[in-house]
Amino acid sequence: MAVVHELAKAGFGTGTNELYDRARPSYQPGALSHIRNAVQAPPPLNIVEIGSGTGIFTRALLAHPDWSSSIKQYRAIEPSGGMREVFAKSVQDERVSVSEGTFDTTGVENGWADLVVIAQAFHWCPDYDKASAEFARILKPDGIVAFIWNLEDRDGAAWVAQLRNRIEKHEQGTPQFRLGLWRATFSTPSYNKFFSPPEEKRWTYALHGTRDIVTNRALSKSYIAVLPPDEKAQIVQDVGKILEKGDDLKWIDKEKGIFEYPYGTLVVICKRK
């Protein structure tokens, strides 16, 4: 039986997804080029995206010049009905389909995919060994798995560290990306049987931030989305205080309220043996 983490079910359930889609950042062009360069197969490519959410990564990939004409078919797999609904509205491309599934139950036929990509989702995986076996099953020989995550860079500015300290205390023991629990994947029997050692690359950069962007992004976190209204209101107030204090905050356009929002991206590439 496919298992989805209860907090992920609630935090990304119906009614939370429009905010998620509006608030979360897209993906850096350089990181998308890096994934494209890692794929050894000639185009057109078959792609499976697991945990496709509302389509933020999918839209970025489809719009990227290295990818736009390289895709044959793109199968998005997403367990949340609410997220699939937003995905279907926001991704308009005849090569793309979206269906229900999980990391270890994709419904994709054997040896179909040139690339399996998981954006901002793999830390929710409940069984790394089963997931690795599923990736190996649906990939062609020499296919790759790419994991990608964006995260606010606490080393980029003191106010970002303060922001993360304020919201991360609500994580309730969930397997968040920052904890690195997902790295246990690389010591599972299935991973070591089917894949080469992972290759990692990181980028740091600054996005445009505003008070609304920072606040909505905090509210879009699964562990914040499930909080009662009074606790959410307190978080909004506290985020406002952190920004007003503005430790290390660098303005881009003070009149318009736009400042630098330090971010980081990690890409992990895993090649099928």
From TrEMBL:
Annotated Methyltransferase type domain residues: 48-147
Keyword Transferase included in the entry's annotation: yes
Annotated InterPro entries: Diverse_substrate_MTase (IPR051052), Methyltransf_11 (IPR013216), SAM-dependent_MTases_sf (IPR029063)
Pfam family for this entry, one: Methyltransf_11
SUPFAM superfamilies, per the entry: S-adenosyl-L-methionine-dependent methyltransferases
MF term (GO), any: S-adenosylmethionine-dependent methyltransferase activity
Gene3D superfamilies to which the protein is assigned, alphabetical: Vaccinia Virus protein VP39
GO biological process: methylation
Keyword field: Methyltransferase, Transferase
Family in the record: Belongs to the methyltransferase superfamily.
UniProt name for this protein: S-adenosyl-L-methionine-dependent methyltransferase
Upper lineage: Eukaryota, Fungi, Dikarya, Basidiomycota, Agaricomycotina
